[in-house]
Amino acid sequence: MRKGIGLFIVFSSILHLYGQQDSLIERKSQKEQPFLFEASYIGDSYFNAVGGLRTGIGYMGMGNLKIGFDTEKARWWKGGKFFINAASIHGKSLSGNFSGDLQVASNIDAGTHAYLHELWFQQEFEKISFTVGLQDLNADFVATENGTEFINSSFGVPPVLSGNIPVPIFPLTGLGISATWNISNTFCWQTAVFDGYQTPFEKNPYNLCWNISKDEGIFLITEFHSNIRIHNLDGTYKTGYFYHSGLRKFDAESQNKTYLIRPNNGFYVLIDQTLMHNEAANRKIGLFVQAAFCPNKGIAYSHYFGLGANYYGIFNKKGKDVLGLAAAHVKLDITNHKHETALELFYKWHFNKNISIQPDMQYIINPSLTEMLLKNTLVCLLRLHINL
């Protein structure tokens, strides 16, 4: 496996160097083609230095192959897009075998699978767009621009959503219909309805088993965006609501259907705010805030709070690097643990637009994957990201 990863890196580097020799005319011609091809690979080398389940080293990786088709560029009709995203993930789980944290220290930690991640069609009109098919919720919902730079999973979708109810996010996406309405230049509303349950990999190894049943319920989400400039600094403020109608199963003893997951709902607020932007020096500081709350009883996570900041261009005059610091705190309600808190510090360097490397450290307070009390853990990661 390591040999294959090494070959992938070498091959990707050769392709990148070859691509740099393309003329401007060739690149322009490629952009005008109706088909879009993109390949990427993320590799996480990690070391659990202290605490958790046990110390040790390991490796996880994720490859993606994406194909898009634009109907307008194909001269079919305006505003139509088809998209396919195939994924391959592999490696030994960091959280499951070493760090023992519930929030999941790496956002590519998901076992070993090769499967279909996305398959959808989108139709855009003047201010409204509709998307139908196999979708990743986090591609459009519950996302902060500054939070996506971090590796810990909670800075993507807070565990108040991902831990309490089945939601269509990595690694198992789901069938759904979503809509976006750009009401004005500063205000946007988007909403979606998804199948309420994603069939596990054990029965759905390639994510091609799409079983829609009323017993699986539905998942609804709606989100409002507001773009605000404060002292000429850009900010995006989001608020959202989600609801799951519950998941039922047949009970042989009572001969009735009982709730495996009861109806559940909650709220969240997301903020991305630029604090400083020096365009001449390619430097910027961005702040992000996440807050999520679920009022229901008998759930695993009642509320979550995340806070972090990124400094872009801190050392590199071309703005190709970023330094980030953030904290994620979740309150636990149905275990012996009261909370779990993750602190993350990283530095990311972009060699070019296709290749980046990211050393990352996380200190996890009260890792809570198991019922037994675990010592606080220190995780060190080195992420390589290649995009072609």
How would you characterize the overall build of this protein?
Helix content is 9%, strand content 52%. By secondary structure, the chain is mainly β. It has a domain of 255 residues: Porin, CATH 2.40.160. Strand 4 and strand 5 form a beta hairpin. The protein is globular. The chain starts with a helix and ends with a strand. The N terminus is likely disordered.
Compact summary:
With 388 residues, this protein is mainly beta. The protein contains four helices and 18 strands.
> Main β-sheet: number of strands, strand sense, barrel status?
16 strands, antiparallel, barrel
Share of helix, binned:
under 10%
Mean pLDDT: 90
In what range is the share of β-strand residues?
Answer: over 45%
Order of helices and strands: HHEEEHEEHEEEEEEEEEEEEE
Shape: globular
Number of strands: 18
What is the radius of gyration? 22 Å
User: Which CATH class of the domain at 133-387?
Assistant: Mainly Beta
Q: Which architecture of the domain at 133-387 does the CATH hierarchy give at level 2?
A: Beta Barrel
Q: Can you tell me the residue ranges where pLDDT is under 50 for at least 5 consecutive residues?
A: 1-30
Strand order of the largest sheet: 1-2-3-4-5-6-7-8-9-12-13-14-15-16-17-18
Q: How many DSSP H or I helices?
A: 4
Q: How far is it from the N-terminal to the C-terminal residue, by CA?
A: 21 Å
List the helices and strands and how they pair.
Elements (H helix, E strand, L loop, with lengths): L1 H18 L4 H8 L3 E16 L5 E15 L9 E12 L2 H6 L13 E12 L3 E8 L23 H4 L11 E8 L5 E9 L22 E13 L2 E12 L2 E5 L4 E6 L2 E15 L4 E11 L7 E12 L8 E12 L6 E12 L4 E11 L11 E11 L1
Antiparallel strand pairs: 1-2, 1-18, 2-3, 3-4, 4-5, 5-6, 6-7, 7-8, 8-9, 9-12, 10-11, 12-13, 13-14, 14-15, 15-16, 16-17, 17-18
